[in-house]
Amino acid sequence: MGCAAKPEVLKSSVLLIEPPELVPCERISEEEAGALQNNGDVWALKDRAINLLDTCADQVDAQIKRSQSR
After folding, report:
1. What is the pLDDT of residues 8-53, one digit of tens each?
2. H, E, C per residue of 26-61
């Protein structure tokens, strides 16, 4: 009977990550404000797309239920 192998010793280290400094909205430049507006437009389009997909999915679900009940 052989001896059980010794477990390998693992070394670990700690990495401290500092959060970024938040800049209040009052301090952004006009150029940055324009970019943020465009970003907001993108989010609005995303929300509209999600709502449209939800509506389509609901219609497909309803059609499946109707076809199963026949």
Report:
1. 888 888 877 787 776 555 566 777 767 777 777 878 888 889 989 9
2. HHCCHHHHHHHHHHHHHHHHHHHHHHHHHHHHHHHH
Amino acid (1-letter code) at residue 31: E
Residue 28 neighbours by CB under 8 Å, 6+ apart: 36
> How far is the C-alpha of 46 from the C-alpha of 24, rounded, in Å?
25
Amino acid code (one letter) for 30: E
Maximum Cα interatomic distance, the chain, rounded to a whole number of Å: 77
Cα–Cα distance for residue pair 42/46, rounded to 1 Å: 6
Joined together, the tokens standing for residue 70 give 């026949």
For residue 25, the model assigns a pLDDT of 55
Residue 10 has phi, psi (to 5 degrees) of: -110, 140
